[in-house]
Amino acid sequence: MPSALLTRRLRLAAQPIPFATGPNSVTEARLWRTPRFSVIRLKTQSGLTGYGECAPLEQAEFDSAFAKIKGREATSFEVIRTLLSGPVEAGINTALLDITGKIAKAPIFQLLGGPTRNKARAMASLDDPKNLDTLMKQGYRAFRVPITQTNAASRLKELRQAAGENVDFVLDGAGKFSPGIASTISAAIERLHPLWFDEPCPLANVRAVAKISEENVTPLGFGRTASSPIDFQELLREQVIDVLRPDLAKMSISSIRRSAAIAETYYTAVAPYNNGGKIATAAGLHLAASIPNFYLLDIPPGTATIKDGFAMLPTAPGLGIEINEGDWA
Fold first, then answer.
1. What pLDDT digit, counting tens, does each position of 221-264 carry?
2. 98 and 124 co-located in one domain
3. Domain assignment present for 321
4. DSSP state at residue 304
């Protein structure tokens, strides 16, 4: 969408957001930074706290975002979203939803119209094939596997033989192949039936990506580089994407729900990407329960309990998980 048109539409969509003086107004905030992600804590005047997680932030960026939301009603998470952008919006949106759930004494997915399911299928990253048995003993039955130009088919065959039946694999291109090479790999693996080919190439040229889709039947997953629902519109319109892959560290629950609603009109599944901690995983589980076209969620080992390939939904108010701030100190 042209920038001038986008600016005009955002101005028309903008809503005045009143400041609050009641017990649910946001009064305090704190940021923790780790090498892989940042954690946000918001506190209301009444003392309720909410936590969110996102991609690494600079303190100045967080301070600027908090200045925009300080004094706002925590339950106004949808309209507050319009004041923010980028990863900080993802973290703050989750923290506001966490507070809202605690106010309502309900899990986040109930606030969002769920549940559409009572458990979510889980996938682990299998960077080293030697870890397959360990991860299967932890309950995983789906794996995302990094590949090279030459080992995609052979790697998939080897893993299938080692894992046995009822185990699925996603082959991960990480956006590093050219469209031509990605098309060749896609053709080589289509008879082996992976769940999908993840990020086979960069998205600089949608027409080139469409050629991969037209020439092969291997499902394609894209979206880990996206930062807003707008980024998915052309992909969906051109029918080049089979699995939507929004990154929970870059996009908020609210933004991904908007993306999922667009994807649903194109009969496209949603499998959020997650490489964060337990807060991001909990956010992903609530998201999974609130959208009808959810397919699968990346769940890093140790961030949730997996049984027979699935993670159960948190059912306590808000995020529904126990949080120890000492984990990031």
1. 999 999 888 888 888 988 889 999 999 999 999 999 999 999 99
2. no
3. no
4. S
